Every structure is written in C-alpha cells, then in structure tokens.
Here is the input.
Amino acid sequence: MLGASRSQLVSPDATGRLVYKPTTTGDTILDFSNCGYAGGGVKILDVPVKATLQPAATGDDTARIQQAIDAVAKQAPGAVLLAHGRYRVGGQLKIAASGVVLRGEGNSESGTVLIATGKSVRHLIDVGGTTRIAESSREKTAITDDRVPVGARSFQVRDASGLRAGDTVFVSRIGNQEWIHFIGMDQIKPVKGERDLTQWSAFALKFDRVIAAVSGNRITLDAPLACAVEARWGGGEVWKYRDTRIEQVGVENLYAISEFDPRKTERQGNRPYHSDEEHASGIIDFGKVKNAWARNLTAVHFCHGVVQFGGESKWITVQDCRALDPVSQITGGRRYPYSIGGQLLLVQRCYSRGERHAFAVGARVCGPNVFLDCFSEQDYACSEPHHRWSVGGLYDNVQGQISFADRGAMGSGHGWAGANYVAWNCRGSLTCEQPPTAQNYAIGFVGKKREGPFKRKDGFWESHGQHVEPRSLYLKQLEERLGIGALKNIGAPVGTVVSRPRSS
Here is the structure.
C-alpha cells in the first residue's frame, strides 16, 4: 500500500509478521482470523447435485422445493439445484439437516429467481436444526485470574480436571450490577421522543469456544476473548456443552425478490417511498447452525435484505451478496440487511443500497466477528454495533457510515452499543468513542470524523486520513495463522482498498 503508515498497536515487524502492543491494562487488538466458515481460511464445499427442479408454469413452488430439500437430507451431502427461471414461494423453506445446500443457476434476473409472494412476514429460507445445545452447567468451574485481558486465549480456572482439549465450552464474562453502575448504564438519561426506556441490569457474555489445550488448571482456547474478565466485576466461569447444531449447509447463486403492495407509500422529507411491511423480510435466517455459508445472493425489496444470524450461529461465511432497494417504513427495527447475532462470523465483499443499519451487530453479541471489504450507500443510518455492549467486531476496509458509540436512551436504552471494536482502513464517516472499562479503535480511517449522538470521550484514533499497513488486518492475521493458501481459499481480494461491488 503505497504511502501507508503503521499502527503502534499492531503492525508488521522487520520480518513481516504482526507485532501486537498491549495497552496499559494488557489488552490487545484481537486476532480475528478464526471468523468464517470452518474457523476461517477453509474453502467452501462444492457438494454434488442430488436433485434438480425446473420452474413450473403456474402455482406455488414452496412444497415441491421443500420436498426436494427433505429428500436430499436423507442422502446428504448433496445440493438441490433450482434450474434458471422463476419460482414462487408463498411460504418458508427449511434446511434442518446437515449437508444440504440450496443452489441456483445464477445471481441475476436471468438466473434462478425466487419470488417471495404473499403477506406473510418471514425470512424466505430458515437454516438451522431444532435440537437445543445441551449444556453441563452443573460442572462450572470459576476463572481464578484477577483479570483476563481482551485478546487472551489462556487463563487459570479453579479446577480443570474435567476438561480436555477438543471440548466445546462456554466461557462467561460476568458483568455485575456494580459494573453496570460504573459504566453508567443504570443511569441512562431520557431523551425526548424515546419511549420505554429500560435501565440495564447485570448480565453475562457467553463466549462459544473449543479448548485447544489444558495444562494443570490453565486452559487455552481456540479463539480469543473479546471482553476482559475481571474479578471486581463478577469474574467468569467455564462449562462444557454438547454441540448439536447442524453443519455443512449453504444457500448460493440465487436472485430473490419480495413482492409488496406498491400502493402503500410514505414520505421521507419531500420524497415518497414504498412502505409496505406485509411481505417477506429477508432471504436467510441462520439459527442453530455452524460451518455454513451463503454466497452469490441478491435480495430485492426485502425489509431485512440478505441474512440474519441468530445467537447460536457460529463459523459462517456470507460473501459476494447484494441487498437492494428495501421496502418498509424508514424507522427503527427495519432495514438490517446483514445482521449479526452469533459468533466467529465473516461477511465479506457484500453490498447494501438504501438500508438503515447495513452492517450491524445486535445486543450482547460475543465476538470476534468480521465485516470485510463491504460497501454501503444511500444509508439512512449507520453500520454499527447497535446496542447493549456487543464486543469484538472488526470493520475491515468497509465503506459507508460507521459508528461505535454510546446510544444512550435511543431504542429504549441501547446505551454503550459496542466495546473493543476496530475500524481498520475504512472509508466514509466514522464515530469512534471509548466506553468505560474498554476501548474502540479507529485505525487508518479515511473520511469524516463524526461526533456520536451524545458527547463522549474519543476512542483510540490513529492515522486518520491515511491508511495503514497491512491493507487488511483480517487477511494478514489469517495468512499468518494458516498460510497464503487460506487467502486463496476464501477468494481474498487484491488491489484497491475497497472494491465496489456491482450496485445493479
């Protein structure tokens, strides 16, 4: 990157490898490289076709597509191929078994087109199992370190005798009422026009991890913690669970349109717009699922665009997708085309037009999560961690309006929306403020620095107006962990800082 500078917190040394400088509290910029399908850097499967459907001249296609999905589930892995043409879907399609892929023959109006018909508000495709994760909470063991810093993967527990490498575990970071009071989230001031203000109460973040090693009572995890675990705020605990999520599933190469009533309109300023809300809201809802993907999809007129990640989604890649021209009211709770609620997720090379919170993260989401080489325009609001202390997100070469801020009473008391977030070599406009007991980072940002809705202390700003090396933090971290082949596996971009996807 010609003329780029280097960050003092993470930058290549003389050999080209990244060196991380801890803060005074021992926190470091996260290693985000475990995000994405199969834990990052793994090529998405190309599963064989087991059933092929052709478009029908008339009628609803929901039942026959679902029958094909259910049939392939019995002989998985396999794909249901929808040959190019138009398919009317008045209901919801469900992928509930491992190894099933729904595939089209082109992400354009001349390819495979799914038309979401009717007034039912739903995601067109529901992806996820029905079995609840089985937790062994009675075997909890406490974290004994006084403070486990942000970015750490290793720490001491009271009794690790029941833990082994390969165990799936939850690691809780407790935030007690004393911590809530310290960060001021039980004292959120009302704002005129905001209703139903809810002050925060104590809660725990629950990191979903795999044990990489055990030595005595010290355990090492496969991915770092995105929030400090501090004894003075309640400490933390570890316990095992049995992972029952479906996996190796995907949706790919489709163009989807949500039908709506064009007679329903409202005005934004002097401009009328379509505001019907009785129609399909999005293409995919990822629920109880891991190691999955969505790629080469276009969403047209859906309120929530391409994808919603539920809280039990993990290790998923969404790439090369477009969310275009949503139809809904332009107000709260609408227009989140790429909405993250899970962990270790990667959204890369995706595009948004006319949305509100284009690249968004929900409440109390446990990172790391990554938006990479994404672009939004005609935004009505910011891409952001949206509310209530989600942690550990990376906006890497994202172009648009971005915000890491205290949202105060907005949205019934969103408060400090995100902590330990990084904007790396982004463009557009950016708000980056420091939450108490944590930090947010603006590194190599080019564009307008904006104040948040409430005047707060700046986060860590560095090299404003000039990009830094490496071009992509995520890709460099991935290369160092798995080698150059990992970049080829995920179709890593080269050249421009932000590649602008096709907008139509």
